[in-house]
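Lab meeting, item 3. Inverse folding demo.
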């Protein structure tokens, strides 16, 4: 188990290479990566307080603007919501680490140590006065020790840049030596994320064609489709009816996908590979092409839409089946003209859009499967519904086999 202190994650960009390697270590199952509950709350609090500071600055700037511009309305920054900010950052950090549940005993012991100046607690001088500090640091330290005590078969790596309180990994104060007395042979202190990464990963090289093959694997495509259909992206620019060609310069806004879209790999760039344990892992920027049914902002009816989606992914290149994890993603965008040739088939299960239409009996049977609630239909049912509407003359012309006469 790798247990991280607050300062390690606070100084780590969640979309940076170090965070990607932490995700790779966690995904490889070589080691678990976690933080004590108090670390997660400290991170969420620091982010929320930074948001509050920016909010107050923006609010003051808008009040000043209203005074300088007495005509018209000046829109405010909206309602301040610190709990929403905290919850957002808990979720963001939660994608990187798991959380070790808190115990009351850790907080009681932390308060006791601070009151009695027992390491890692200490006294600091500020504004001419001495202040006892360190109760939270002590609780974090004790949480890591307690985990090691309860998991006798695990090595525990505690990573903290706070060398003043937790030492440099070579020596500890007597009180803290006593804390690890029963686990010293499997409890190690590291002082930086770089040291951790050097310990568990080795730079490697990955062939681009191998990465592309892994990204095209059915398991990888399924992971992309699942995230797209889950509502990860809403209100994004798209291309309407791309199967008829990408011609329009305007890009409508799609509110969501109706069911999972079809997906195809368009390009792979910025590949970085590392060997973790016995596995070769790589991170790459991948652009996907999505094609399916969705709803447009200005229309309640389903439409055929296409979009390009740029993601940063983590891929395992070892083992019988590649494993793909989406690290982060941009919002989908409208297709480029050159994307038309690579656009995946619209139809589920590889059905051909140019195939002969079903007969009348088959059409009636298929229509019998459809439900009134469009949101409850499966993608296959929606595809069949649109296919019938577009191609079968009886339903294309409102129940008449022949088109209505022109007025």
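The presenter then showed the designed sequence:
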């Amino acid at each position: 188990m790798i247990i991280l202190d607050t300062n390690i994650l606070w100084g780590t960009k969640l979309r940076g290479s170090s965070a990607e390697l932490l995700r790779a270590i966690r995904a490889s199952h070589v080691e678990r990566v976690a933080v004590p509950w108090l670390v997660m709350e400290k991170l969420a609090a620091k982010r929320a307080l930074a948001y509050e500071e920016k909010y107050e600055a923006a609010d003051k700037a808008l009040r000043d603007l209203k005074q300088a511009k007495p005509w018209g309305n000046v829109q405010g920054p909206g309602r301040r919501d610190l709990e929403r900010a905290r919850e957002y950052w808990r979720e963001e950090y939660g994608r990187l680490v798991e959380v070790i549940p808190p115990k009351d005993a850790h907080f009681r012991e932390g308060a006791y140590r601070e009151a009695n100046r027992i390491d890692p607690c200490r006294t600091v001088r500020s504004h001419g006065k001495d202040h006892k500090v360190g109760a939270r640091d002590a609780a974090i330290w004790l949480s890591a020790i307690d985990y090691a005590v309860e998991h006798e078969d695990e090595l525990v790596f505690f990573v903290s840049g706070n060398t003043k309180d937790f030492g440099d990994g070579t020596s500890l104060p007597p009180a803290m030596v006593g804390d690890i007395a029963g686990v010293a042979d499997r409890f190690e202190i590291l002082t930086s994320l770089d040291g951790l990464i050097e310990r568990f990963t080795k730079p490697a090289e990955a062939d681009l064609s191998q990465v592309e093959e892994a990204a095209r694997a059915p398991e990888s495509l399924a992971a992309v489709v699942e995230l797209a259909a889950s509502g990860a992206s809403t209100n994004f620019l798209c291309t309407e009816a791309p199967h008829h060609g990408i011609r329009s310069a305007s890009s409508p806004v799609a509110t969501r996908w109706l069911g999972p879209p079809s997906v195809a790999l368009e390009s792979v760039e910025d590949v970085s590979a590392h060997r973790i344990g016995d596995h070769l892992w790589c991170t790459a920027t991948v652009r996907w092409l999505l094609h399916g049914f969705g709803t447009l902002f200005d229309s309640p009816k389903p439409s055929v839409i296409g979009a390009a989606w740029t993601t940063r992914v983590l891929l395992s290149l070892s083992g019988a089946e590649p494993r793909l994890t989406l690290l982060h993603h941009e919002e989908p965008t409208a297709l480029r003209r050159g994307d038309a040739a690579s656009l995946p088939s619209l139809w589920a299960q590889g059905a051909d859009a140019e195939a002969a239409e079903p007969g009348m009996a088959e059409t009636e049977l298929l229509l019998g499967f459809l439900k009134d609630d469009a949101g409850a239909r499966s993608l296959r049912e929606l595809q069949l519904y649109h296919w019938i509407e577009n191609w079968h003359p009886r339903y294309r012309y409102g129940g008449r086999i022949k088109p209505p006469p022109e007025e």
